[in-house]
Write a structure and sequence with these properties.
This protein is mostly beta strands and 254 residues long. Helix content is 2%, strand content 61%. A hairpin with a 4-residue loop joins strand 1 (34-47) and strand 2 (52-65).
Length: 254
């Protein structure tokens, strides 16, 4: 049975892990409608032109899925140490959904849509300070034990220009006010219960100003009964999204 990777792992990036990611939910489309709840723990260090420090966070999530649709709502609580000052703040609340348009034995493709709400603190680096809309598309292809997946989307801020530093923000989930976001990854089913893989994600400016960013990550996920657990280790490659970040997550299907 194919391992259902918890969407918290896919957001890790980040997400997939965080509020601003176009990664799709790789749920098992052969299963009936299901409800799941999960939590992820993240720790990261960063060293940008303006800020140096680290942050830790706890991110609960709730997911619903069936053969064609999936939706997840997530939030976060963060401890941020920035230039020697420590603050505790909520992160932005995100709601993401997807619909499968093409579903074959070895190929899936569909559309994505997401919105993040400005519940985090833009001044402390845990929120954008404005609403973000994030439509996109995804595709996934399975060959034997290998699954390849990619997504691309467009992200745009609704208002809040005066609250944004017009760079990649917030610290806990950096993106630009207007950008093209992308993810790409490959996973190998090592055993019926264990999956390991690599992925990358990033963003390209779609408006005035801003720099590209990209991360690379290795991950492992395993299933025991109705519980999916995973670990992902990420490295910032381009644009200083962070230096290194680790995410541990678990999700229980009901």
């Amino acid at each position: 049975m194919q391992v259902r990777l918890a969407i918290a792992i896919l957001f890790a990036s980040a997400p997939a892990f965080a509020q601003h990611d176009h990664a799709h939910d790789d749920h098992d489309a052969t299963q009936p409608a299901a409800l799941a709840a999960g939590v992820a723990v993240v720790a990261a260090s960063f060293d940008t032109m303006l800020y140096v420090g680290h942050y830790e966070g706890v991110m609960p999530s709730v997911r619903w899925s069936n053969a064609r649709f999936a939706a997840i709502a997530s939030g976060g609580l963060y401890r941020v140490n920035k230039n020697g000052a420590t603050t505790y703040d909520l992160g932005d609340v995100g709601v993401h959904g997807q619909a499968s348009i093409v579903h074959r034995d070895t190929f899936d493709a569909g559309v994505l849509a997401g919105i993040s709400l400005p519940t985090g603190s833009s001044s402390h680096g845990t929120g954008m300070g404005h609403v973000m809309l994030m439509p996109g598309v995804y595709a996934a292809w399975t060959v034997d034990r290998v699954r390849l997946a990619a997504s691309i989307g467009y992200s745009r801020a609704l208002g809040g220009e005066s609250d944004h530093d017009h760079g990649a923000w917030p610290l806990v989930s950096p993106m630009l006010m207007t950008e093209i976001s992308w993810t790409a990854g490959a996973d190998v089913r090592v055993t019926p219960a264990i999956t390991a893989g690599l992925r990358s994600a990033g963003g390209l400016p779609a408006g005035d100003g801003g720099n590209a960013r990209a991360i690379g990550a290795g991950r492992i996920a395993w299933r025991s009964g109705r519980v999916d657990t995973g670990f992902e280790l990420q490295a910032g490659l381009v644009g200083d999204p962070f230096t290194v970040r680790g995410v541990v997550s678990t999700m229980l299907s009901f």
